[in-house]
Specification:
This protein has 204 residues and is an alpha+beta fold. Helix content is 19%, strand content 31%.
Length: 204
């Protein structure tokens, strides 16, 4: 691992791969280190912010790579199940690009088990890995100015659910009634890095 300073109160740890980023995230949270303000795992990195008045960043930079990493962060937990009505505006187009029927797109999308790689773009927006390779289609050439909350979408190697109404260029396969972001809930999002996710077929 390589550790870099990130501003006056942050450290960016290069982990080299997604699994190690998830394991380091779990290790830091479990260690109860004094002065840690936030831990933000990315695809190959973990950003740690701390209170410089409480935490010596130099010592922390030395300690982070030495933390014992757990074998797994979320494998033992039950997957988050998200019911989906597959009536998305881009379902037929995705099927055409992939050379499949819409029914086969639904089958492949709902048969896979996903892992939350990281959260970004907007609060509660989880980038999910594990999408069937046949469904690795590009983003729309012209993004929509508004995608409704609950839209289930794919782009490249990722699947996702839009947690709130926002612009977006991912291809829409369907919609869910599940609330993906609620500031009155603790935690606000049902997704966290390393968690497993399954999409289930729901009736309209």
């Amino acid at each position: 691992m390589k550790v870099h300073r990130a501003g006056e109160a942050g450290l960016l740890v290069e982990t080299g791969d997604l699994a190690t980023a998830h394991r380091l995230d779990a290790a830091i949270r479990a260690a109860g280190l004094a002065g840690i303000v936030d831990v933000v795992p990315g695809e190959h990195t973990v950003l740690v912010t701390a209170d410089p008045a409480v935490c010596d960043l130099g010592r922390l930079a030395t300690r982070l790579p030495e933390l014992p990493l757990p074998d797994a962060t979320a494998a033992a937990a039950d997957p988050v199940e998200i019911p989906v009505v597959y009536d998305g505006a881009d379902l037929a187009e995705v099927a055409e690009i992939a050379g499949l029927t819409p029914e086969e797109v639904v089958r492949r999308h709902s048969a896979a088990e996903y892992t939350v790689a990281y959260l970004g773009f907007s609060p509660g927006f989880g980038y999910l890995t594990g999408l069937d390779e046949a469904l690795h289609v590009p983003r729309r050439e012209s993004p929509r100015t508004a995608v409704p909350a609950g839209a289930v979408a794919i782009a490249g190697p990722y699947a996702a659910v839009y947690p709130s109404r926002s612009p977006g260029g991912w291809r829409l396969l369907g919609r869910t009634s599940a609330t993906m972001w609620d500031v009155t809930r603790d935690p606000p999002s049902p997704l966290r890095p390393g968690a497993r996710v399954r999409f289930t077929v729901a009736a309209p």
